[in-house]
Amino acid sequence: MDKWCLFEIKKELKFKTKIKTNYKKYMAMKKRSIFLLAGIATLYFNNTYAQETTPQDSTRTASIDQVVITGNSRPKPKIESSTAISTFSAKEIQKQNPISAAALLQRVPGFAVETSGGEVGNNLFARGIPSAGAYEFVQVQEDGLPVFEDGALQFANADNFFRVDNSVSRLEALRGGSGSIFATNSPGGLINFITKEGGNDFKGTAKLETSTYGLMRTDVNLGGALVKDKLFFNVGGFYRTDDGIRKTGFKANQGGQIRMNLKYVFDKGYAKVYYKKLDDRNTFYLPIPLVQNGNDLKEFSGFDANYGTYSYRNISQLNIPQAGGGFFSRNLEDGIHPKVDVLGAEFKYDLGNNFSVLNKTRYTNINMNYTGIFPSGGPKSGADFAGLPVSQGGLGMSNYQYSMVSSGAIVNPAYVQKLGFWAIDKQMNNFVNDLQFNYKFDKGNVTAGFYKSSWKSHQNWNWSNVLATASDKPELLNLVNPALSPNATGYSKTYNGVIDMSFLLRDSQVQGSLNDLYANLDFNITDNLSFNGGIRYSRDFYKGYGVNTTTGNLNNSGLTTDGTHSFLTTTADDNMSVLGNKYTYWNYDVNRVSFTTALNYKINSENAVYARFSNGFRSPNEEAYYNNMTNLSAIKPVTTNQLEVGYKYYSRTFDIAVIPFYSTLKNLSFTDVFSDGTSENKFANTTNYGVELEGYARLFNNLLEVTFNGTIQNPKYKDFTGRNADGSTFNYDDNTVRRMPKVYFNIAPAVNITKSWRAYVSMNYYGKRFQDEKNAQTLPSFSEFGAGTSYQLGKIRFAVDGTNIFNTIGITEGDPRAGSPSGDGTIMARPIMGAAVRASITLDF
C-alpha cells in the first residue's frame, strides 16, 4: 500500500472514536436490522477459517484490509466507502492474466463488456446505459486523471491508449455513485488504474510469455529508492508481438509501452513526476458471416467462426489515386496504431491547521492511424451481387464476369463480400489540471476543487469499398461486363478490386474547454453512521468544424486504370469524395450541476449498509455534434438519475456485496455510423433496475477459493418514438435496450492443490440480447470457459492460462453498421476469440 495512504489513514484515525464492540449491544442491534442477519450468517466462514494461512499463489487480497481512493475525497477503508466499487490488486491482476483491459473489466459487476474486438477497441456499457460503443458513460483514468478527456471519440475508444502491464499497482472500478462529482462525463462510473511507485526496498518483476498464436511478450518493472525515505523511482513496461488469435496472415499485434515515475517525499507532503510512452499497433476485428437459427449459431461455409477474419493479408494494401490529385496509400497491417506521449506531475502539501492541497496535472499527445476492414452488409452469391436490381442490393448487370486481382484468372465465386476499407487519422491532445483543497475536522473532512481540461481532436477519414471472396482468407475480385469492349464506358465495376474509390472523406475537429468546480463533504454523524455529499458545477465549452464535400471522378484526370484504359472504363471512381473549401463552424456550451448524497452505516467491523442517490450527465458526443452542426438545438446533454442501496460483508475469508440499483436516462442520442457513411439521428430515454452481486470465499482450510460477480437488470426504452430517415414512423417504447443482457456473470473457482500449486476454471455467461432497438435480431446467450494452472517455486511463478477452451461461438454484437438487421439466416456478427493457450514465467525479486 502507498506510504502516503497509510500516513493519511493514521491521521484520520486520530479524529475518530474507537469502534465499540460490546457483544450485548451487537446482539440487540441484530434484531433491528435484516442486513445484520445476513451478516451474522456469513460469520460462520470467518470463525471457521480465521486461523488459516494464505497460500503463496492465492488470488485475493482481503477486502477488509483494502483502502480505496477512487470516487472519494480521501483514502478510505473499502467498507466505509458508500460506493459500489470493485478492486483488483497487482497480484490479482497477475493471476487473472487478462488478454486485454476489457477482459479484466469483465470481472466487475454492472459493466457489460464486449471483448471481441481484440486487444483494443472494445466496448463497455455501465449499468445498462446504451451507447454506440466505446467507454461513453465512464471515464478511464490513470492515477486519478483521464487517459483522454473523452473516452468515446469516434474510433478512439479509451482502451486504445491504455495497456495493462506489470507497472499497474491496482485497479479500482466504481459504478455510478460519486463518479460524476470526481470526473467529467462519467455518470456510469470511474475506472482508475493506479501505477506502482518505488519504496525503500528495491523490487522488481520480470515476465516472459508465449502462446499458441505466436505470442512473444516481455514485461519488466523495477522500483526502489534513490535516497532512502526521500526519493523513489519506478520504471516498467512491455514489448509484445503476436500473430493474433484470428488468423490475419501478418503480425496482428506488435509494440509496447514504457512508464516511469520519480517521487520525492518530504515532511509535509510529496512531489511526483511521471512519463509514459505507448507505441503499439493492434488488429481490430469486425463482424464475420454466421448462420443463425434461433439460438443456434453455425459457421458460414468457408469461414472459421473461431479463428477467421476478413482482416487478412491478401487484401491488406490500398493504393488509389485521388480526385484532387495524388495517391492515398494504406496498409491494413498497421491496424489501430496510436503513438501516445504522456507527461504529468502530482504535488501534495500539508498547509497546517488541518488544511492540505493536492494538485495533479498532465499533458497527453496522441497521433493515431486507424485502419480496419468493416463489412458493408452481408455476403451475397456472385450471381445476386452482380445480377439483382439495385433496389434489391445488386448491381443490375445482365452480363458479368469475376476474376482474381492477384492472377487475372476468371472465377465463379459462390459468395462475394463488399468490404469497407476504412482509414482514419486522428491528432489529439489534452492538458488537464485538478487542484484540490482539503480540510479535516473532528467529524470528517471537506474537499473543494477546480478542474480544468483543454482538449482537441482533429480527424481525417478516407473510406473505400473493396470486393472480395466471402471467406476467411479473402481474395480481391474484379467484376466486369463481358458483353462490352474493355475500352467501353462502364466496362468494369472495380479498379484492382476497389469497387468504391474514396467514397467518403471527412475532415472535422472538436475542441473542449472544461471548467468545473466541485465540493465533497464526509461527515461522521456517529461512530458508525456517516454522510457523504458532493456537488459539481460544469461550465464547459465545445467548438468545432466540419468541411463540406463534393463528388468527383478521374475521367478527365489523364490517369489510366492499367496503363492503357482510361477511368471512363470503370464505375469505381464515379462517386469519389472531394473535400471542399466550405467550413461549417459550431459552438456548444454546457452549464450543468451534478450532485450526489449518501449514508453509510457500519454495523460492525465487517458489515455495512449504504444508500446513495446521484444525478449526473454526459455531454453530447462527437458524432452527435457532427450530425447536427447546423441545428445544435436538436441535441442535449444526456442526464442520469441513479438510486442504489447496498450491503457489504468483508472478512479475511469471505466477501459479499449486494447492490440493488435503479436508473433513468434522458436525451440519449444514437450515433452508429453506417457502412455508407451516414449515421442515425434518434433520441431516447431509458430506465433500468437491477442488482449487482460480488463475492469471494476461501473454504475448506484454504483448499478452495471462489470469486463471483454478476448482474441482473431490466433496461428498457421509454418515450422512444419518432420518424425514420425514409419518412416511416417507429415506436420502440418499452423495448429492451439493444446489446444489453438482462443477466451476465462470471464465476471462477480455484483449487490450491498445495501451498504453491494452484488450478482454476472460469465461466463467463452473457445472456440473450437484441442487436437493434426494434428488437428484431436476437443475439443468443453464451458461456465462455477458461482454465489454467500455476506453480510458485520460490520467487519464480510458472503459469498456463487457457481462454474459450471449448471454442464456443458466442457473439457480442451483430452488425451495428448494417442499419436493419434481418434476424435468422445468414447474419453478420462479431464472435469472441477461439481457444488459445498462453504460458508464462514470472520472476519477482
Automatic annotation (TrEMBL):
Transmembrane segments: none annotated. Keywords: Cell outer membrane, Ion transport, Iron, Iron transport, Membrane, Receptor, Signal, TonB box, Transmembrane, Transmembrane beta strand, Transport. Its main location: membrane. It comes from the Bacteria. It is found in: Cell outer membrane. SUPFAM superfamilies: Porins (SSF56935). It is a multi-pass membrane protein. Residues 78-189 form the TonB-dependent receptor plug domain. Residues 304-801 form the TonB-dependent receptor-like beta-barrel domain. Belongs to the TonB-dependent receptor family. This is TonB-dependent receptor. It comes from Chryseobacterium ginsengisoli. The lineage of its organism: Bacteria, Pseudomonadati, Bacteroidota, Flavobacteriia, Flavobacteriales.
